Amino acid sequence: MRFIIQRDRLVQSVQDVMKAVTSRTTIPILTGIKIVATDEGVTLTGSDSDISIESYIPKEEAGDEIVEIKQTGAIVLQAKFFSEIVKKLPTDFVEMEVQNQLQVVIRSGKSEFNLNGLDPEEYPRLPQVEEENAFKIPTDLLKALVRQTVFAVSTSETRPVLTGVNWKVENGELICIATDSHRLALRKAKIEIETAHNYNVVIPGKSLNELSKILDDNNELVEIVITENQVLFKAKHLLFFSRLLEGNYPDTSRLIPAESKTEVIVNTKDFLHAIDRASLLAREGRNNVVRLATLESKGIEISSNTPEIGKVIEELVAQSIDGEELKISFSAKYVMDALKTLEGHEIKISFTGAMRPFLIRPLNDDSLLQLILPVRTY
Amino acid sequence: MRFIIQRDRLVQSVQDVMKAVTSRTTIPILTGIKIVATDEGVTLTGSDSDISIESYIPKEEAGDEIVEIKQTGAIVLQAKFFSEIVKKLPTDFVEMEVQNQLQVVIRSGKSEFNLNGLDPEEYPRLPQVEEENAFKIPTDLLKALVRQTVFAVSTSETRPVLTGVNWKVENGELICIATDSHRLALRKAKIEIETAHNYNVVIPGKSLNELSKILDDNNELVEIVITENQVLFKAKHLLFFSRLLEGNYPDTSRLIPAESKTEVIVNTKDFLHAIDRASLLAREGRNNVVRLATLESKGIEISSNTPEIGKVIEELVAQSIDGEELKISFSAKYVMDALKTLEGHEIKISFTGAMRPFLIRPLNDDSLLQLILPVRTY
């Protein structure tokens, strides 16, 4: 293997596949990055066996030569050293050459690194994914879907299936649901799908977080292929594989109240900041709990009280309050997490009493729903 | 106590005095910030008993009203909560009021905090410092003096005096020296001093680091007052007190070689980057050691070799090499730390053989000197 490559492209690809590499692996070869040079370009692969990422660097792009392949071949290099080295190379082009006995030479300017490589034949094969039933969504929508749900997955391994996000495809619609049993996030989106195939799978939250980091903010389509135990996301020059979680995801539809007794419409940012301030003193006390009470004068009052430290009280003007008056307590963190996913200026909060879960939704938008269980204090 | 104050000024002052406050203190009142309102303005104080910082907010500045004093008085507030609260207040002005029994009300917009205060009478008095023998240096020079020496202090408590920087004032010159016995940093500067008084004290490295963070980058004069066991830095609206370290600082003058056998002049940045690259593979091996060898052709070679991982070798063109040829090994970290303090384009490195300490200095500038002990490998 021998090629000369643009340093910045190599750095970018190495950074991308590094997202899948961990030093905490029991399979030594997975601490490395696999590099394969063919006549068409160079492919890098990183994997922790749950997530695998493949980044492809074509020989040329838009008439610009990115890689000059002198000899095809393959090698595996220690990810930790290789990623540090490429970042610090002195010139814009890098030559990589495999010599005898898995010795790799990396040259850039007057700098020459000799690294001990690993046998590429020992690197595990990526999962084979049948591409029959793919569907497509724009990258920015995919990132929004992830951001608006993944924060609500469980961090506890007591019920492993809850550490993932439930993805359901039904009638040309994708529904993403995450819950840790104290709160629930639900986001729907129309998708481009050719077949009438339905899916119901659970994707690990960690995989979705890494996927989101690696994808640029643009509206190019990402192709998504779901199989029995794997999901594959195909973006430009990038393949992202994740295993799926086993087990049945609980049916959450009956948790979402269909009716409400009190409806409040309020500015998202004002509400978020008021809760943030009230939580400053609550953090130390029991479980970061703040209180909300409706006022007679079309306002709400946000407060918290931690006797050892002090108390805080703030009035907020609501755009409208309909229905019964209400006093309710909740985790400031859960409500702030939910509010951060809501992009609109105004939100509707639907309560069904102080002991029942409540819903936060953007005004006039049914695609996103955040559900939160209150805390019993009154 | 009751006053209305510009929020941004309050936030800035709280941030400044917070640098001295630690939660790891055995004196409970020192977890607080002392606030004193007089007819002239508001003073905030934070202290961990080693460092004390006082920030003064005048009633008005350049015709702009900053504080409106309604009633003078004093209070101590928990630093952790107070600092978080002021940052997140909703409006540009803040009202603070002490009510009965050390209860404090903080109002901003429709937000109202009630905090339990502590008795200001229990807050320790700041050290009394006689201001007879003050000298002055511009802020930016003071920050440079600190930055160019403090990194070389010892982090080990075996010889406590080495965790500080030795400040000597002799004949209108300030000399700052730090050493951890593997390396030494020395910086000199002319100062404005009225009396012929000489000083020789040791200031804790930690104090100098905090001082440097708190001072803005400008050339206003800082007044420095040294007493037997305290140093006081007086900047605009700011007093910074630090205790001094006890014990005699070792005489380091005999450590610095007066003559050299090999002199290399090289570009600072090129040299730094080459050592950085060579150290990438050395970090894992024994003590981050890289090698330097002079070449016949007015060049130097930087290399490192860690058999399990690989090796790196790089040639660097020197501006000049005079004297004996040389092979020497040293800690990449120590040399990089030293190089980062050198602002000039070119540096002179003076060697006296592979086993003797070597000096790095800016070309044509005697005010700064970095000394490093080599590592024996050849």
Gross geometry of chain A:
elongated
Number of domain modules of chain A: 3
Helix content bin of chain A: 10-25%
Rounded to the nearest angstrom, the distance between the terminal CA atoms of chain A is 71 Å
Largest interface: A-B, 30 and 30 residues
At CATH level 3, the topology of the largest domain in chain A is DNA Polymerase III, Chain A, domain 2
Low-confidence stretches of chain A: none
Q: CATH top level of the largest domain in chain A?
A: Alpha Beta
Keywords (chains A, B): Cytoplasm, DNA replication, DNA-binding, DNA-directed DNA polymerase, Nucleotidyltransferase, Transferase
Family (chains A, B): Belongs to the beta sliding clamp family.
Protein name (chains A, B): Beta sliding clamp
Main location (chains A, B): cytoplasm
Describe this protein's structure.
- Chains A, B: InterPro entries: DNA_clamp_sf (IPR046938), DNA_polIII_beta (IPR001001), DNA_polIII_beta_C (IPR022635), DNA_polIII_beta_cen (IPR022637), DNA_polIII_beta_N (IPR022634).
- Chains A, B: One of its GO terms (cellular component) is cytoplasm.
- Chains A, B: Belongs to the beta sliding clamp family.
- Chains A, B: Keywords: Cytoplasm, DNA replication, DNA-binding, DNA-directed DNA polymerase, Nucleotidyltransferase, Transferase.
- Two copies of one chain form a homodimer.
- Chain A is α+β, with helices and mostly antiparallel strands.
- Chain A has three domains: 2-122, Roll (DNA Polymerase III, Chain A, domain 2), CATH 3.10.150; 135-253, Roll (DNA Polymerase III, Chain A, domain 2), CATH 3.10.150.10; 256-372, Box (Proliferating Cell Nuclear Antigen), CATH 3.70.10.
- In chain A, 17% of the residues lie in helices and 43% in strands.
- Chain A has helices spanning 7-18, 79-88, 139-147, 205-214, 268-282, 332-339, and strands at 2-6, 32-37, 41-47, 51-58, 60-61, 64-65, 67-71, 73-78, 93-98, 103-108, 111-116, 135-138, 164-170, 173-179, 183-190, 192-193, 199-204, 221-226, 230-235, 238-243, 262-267, 289-294, 299-306, 310-317, 320-323, 327-331, 346-351, 358-362, 368-372.
- Chain A has a nine-stranded antiparallel β-sheet.
- The longest helix of chain A is centred in the last third of the chain and has 15 residues, at 268-282.
- The radius of gyration of chain A is 25 Å and the shape is elongated.
- The mean pLDDT of chain A is 93.
- At the A-B interface, helix 2, strand 11, helix 5 and strand 24 of A face helix 2, strand 11, helix 5 and strand 24 of B.
